[in-house]
Amino acid sequence: MLNFFHGSDREKARETLNTALTKTSKKKQIVRITDAHTIADLQTTLQGPGMFAEARVIVLDGIVGGENDEMRTMIFDSLQTVRDSDEVFFMLEGALDAATRKQIEKYAEKSEKFDAAKSAGGGSAFGGKENTIFALANALERGDKKALWVGYQRELVKGSAPEAIHGILFWGAKRMFMNSRSRSRASSFVARLAELPHEARRRGEEMQYALERFILSGSSGA
Known about the structure:
There is one protein chain. 53% of the residues lie in helices and 12% in strands. It contains 10 helices and 5 strands. A 5-stranded parallel beta sheet has the order 2-3-4-1-5, with helices on both faces. The chain is α/β, with parallel strands linked by helices. The chain has 2 domains: 2-113, Rossmann fold (3-Layer(aba) Sandwich); 134-216. 32% of the residues are buried. Helix 6 packs antiparallel against helix 7. Helix 2 (39-46) links the parallel strand 2 (29-34) and strand 3.
């Protein structure tokens, strides 16, 4: 079964998804896949839990709107399988074009769209306040380690999943890479954050502590 949350107000979509996830995931393993994972990670997840594995809830976070064409294609090729699965899937995306959104909605049991409100001047109704999880990406881009650490702890207190926070930081690093004239620092962040989930698994380390290590060990860049 597929639940689809999307729109330009990605924080609201994420909050709603997390609320639904809390209700659904009792005594179940939460598996979260972002475009920082590999195509092999996604393929393994979509193949199912196996005969003796514990029950799972799957979160597909930002893959369709990401930059990995292979992963995006695999998602579209698997939509019918996801819809017919006994497992519960949640898909989180930002603003998508109408054709892409409708293609996913055909297979979704539930679809909710969250668009950011606009002010009279055409900007975001939130103004210049960094009062969302996206402030973490902005702090990463500025190299403000203190703001990044404080914001990270605040998101944990609010109940944001470390895997979701990792996804936001990875998105922020990619945005930095695309917008920066000097790309060496941004490229380092992209590479380190892409490797972080795999490194955490090799170490037997929870993502929460892997992210803490990333923030404290040089998130201000080289």
